[in-house]
């Protein structure tokens, strides 16, 4: 029984990275003394500065979560109601919700078999006079074809907003990934490589956007009696900011520990017929946030589901990120113009993300791989 071979009882797709209890308690002591626990406090500002350096971007605005960062990033461009945004359906539902909640229309574009990112060669055909922006996702940390997308955007005068929720710490051609496009958005949710419990950020290429986001996340308040614009409340609080500062100190170890699991999975699956690892080999580094596999044999959906069920039986909770595609979710089905989403649908039917996190033993990775392989037989 493979279950008896596991080091841990229950293994989830990920596990939040956290500093030691003592480290966090020590770090939040000043909050008790000051009673200043939110509203762009000391730690909020410090984390904005430290993250901008780490992510190699000019400036960033911290938010309460990644989803609000997406909503506000879109809002900060002031697109007219009913404008169209060309986007990928192979993503977490948040990407599509953020477009729709801004009174804009998602136009779904198919993805590439090779790495699951938007198929840049299919974008141009979807552009109409109503198109205002392109919103690709660096899914699983796979970098989109940013150079090609930039060229199309320039040609048609469109904005590019990247959902970089999975791409913390990724660099491409010596630049931080958040430095591409007109804006990029990160998620610092508990399930991400770097977390602030809940949190997110919008990368601002210029200070004007930083100021606009400041207003959007803090009611447009600019003084005790001065409100300059309409805004939400989407600020990151000080406890989250301190968690971020602590986690940032350990990020190199976190990524290194994940790499050990990643390398073990790669050695288990690289010659395995019927399994393809969905991580590209572009000139980019990796953050090992996810370990996505695609089942390539006949009847791939059935086999994917069998692997999922067999893993569950031994206490391993893999996830079908992202099935179904967002265009096929009940709230969006048949509502928006889309292209043929053949690749997105077939990848979504065959995808499975296996557990990966710091603290997952290489021995458990090996047992998980064994279970996957046995399910293929
Ligand atoms: N864009 C993209 C492309 C995204 O993937 C996401 C978020 C966003 C935008 C929006 O960013 P946020 O607003 O969330 O910051 C999870 C996360 O909640 C979500 O952040 C993430 N993407 C998505 C891919 O995954 P669920 O519904 O799968 O989460 P849940 O609660 O089932 O957790 C998954 C596993 O993580 C659990 O089985 C155990 C582990 N876990 C979970 C929590 C909540 C922990 O170890 N600690 C925890 O506190 O959505």
Could you please describe the fold and organization of this structure?
With 377 residues, this protein is of the alpha/beta class. It folds into two domains: 2-15 and 250-376, Aspartate Aminotransferase, domain 1; 21-249, Type I PLP-dependent aspartate aminotransferase-like (Major domain) (Aspartate Aminotransferase, domain 2, 3-Layer(aba) Sandwich), CATH 3.40.640.10. The protein has eleven helices and 16 strands. It has helices spanning 21-34, 42-54, 66-75, 93-100, 146-156, 207-217, 238-249, 251-269, 300-313, 342-350, 362-376, and strands at residues 11-12, 59-63, 84-87, 105-108, 131-135, 159-163, 171-172, 175-176, 183-187, 200-204, 221-223, 226-227, 275-277, 291-295, 316-317, 351-354. The strands form five sheets. It has a seven-stranded mixed beta sheet with strand order 2-10-9-6-5-3-4, with helices on both faces. A hairpin with a 2-residue loop joins strand 7 and strand 8 (175-176). Helix 1 packs antiparallel against helix 7 (238-249), helix 2 (42-54) runs parallel beside helix 7 and helix 8 packs parallel to helix 11. The chain is globular and about 70 Å long. The mean pLDDT is 96. It binds ligand T4K.
